[in-house]
Amino acid sequence: MWLVAPLALIAVGALAFGLYLGAEALLTSENTTERPVDVQDVIKTTVTVITLMGAVLAGVYAYRKQLLSEGDSHRADASQLAERYSTAAEQLGHEQAAVRLAGVYAMARLADDWLHQRQVCVDVLCAYLRMPYETDPAQPRFKAGEREVRLNIVRIISDHLQNPQESTAWCHLDWDFSGAIFDGGSFISALFTGAVSFDGARFVDNFSFDRTQFTGGVSLRSARFTKRASFFNAEFSGRAFFNYARFTGAASFDSARFIDTASFDLAQFTRASFFGARFTDAASFYGTRFSENASFDTVEFTGDSSFDRAEFTDRASFSGARSTKGITFTRTNFSGEATFSQADFAGEADFYEARFFDSVDFWGAHFTGAVVSFYGAELAGGSADFANASVHTATHVDWGPFPPIPPNVS
b/e per residue, 72-81, with b = 16+ CB within 10 A? Predict the structure, then answer.
């Protein structure tokens, strides 16, 4: 844009020089026609052209002045935004909770206004949640009013994750909550389209992800949930990792949808419910421990699923569950009652060296896959019920310690 003015000046100069030569030639040339040259017409034409050239030069000057003014304005805006950022950051580090809370709102407003640095602003809010936090008032590091500050950060973030069409939406951003401490709050109905990490995060109070959508993948490796954790009707479009996560309170994944790979390897649950959940891709619960009731009733496993070496200390229920591709329980321990009543094994069903220390119920179960294997399984206590169970199309069947079910006979 800075080339416009010099080019315009050159063009105007060339035009003026051409006009001068033309007028001189016209006035000094011999007139071969009967009509004489009117000097007044030449002067009028010259004045008109010069006026037009002046207008062009005035326009170029005004245009360049506007560019300079806009540049100054942009620099002033950037300077003002940077100043607001510094002020908000200072407030977040203040000793008084009221000032820190003001800093939270100031940083959030700045994120709305500063599109190019929006990610930086929300990174500061995430970093605040990762700072050391003491929940016990008797401890010396306890800060009065800190819980209110943190709850407001979570609420503000959640509010910005509801409607991706809004100009101030934060849905597309990346979120690093690694090691963050959440003392309550929720992300109900939030939409995360960027990468999200809760690795090592601590949830010291009830927390809800009900109806939350993760489209860019989410990791909760080694996250700890002290009280109730709810993921009711949550949707995981990207890969979901809960490896080594610990759920001390009740954990609900009822009606949750896992469209990509889901891994709960070596996670620990107290009470877990996946009622009506759907796993479209691979699902892995390798070495996962369930210390109390675990419900997978009516769950749909469309991809390869594994509960290898999992530990069910109390009741484990897979009533009405459906496995389409294949499900394995290799060396899985069922210390409490295990029920697979009316479960549908359309793919491979492998219970290799699984151990049942209480009663096991396969009442009305359907085995329609190519492989049904209980090879090396152990029934250490209780009884086994295969009443009304049926086997169809299986090419390899090994009932291990259980009485065989004749193929195609209920």
Answer: eeeeeeeeeb
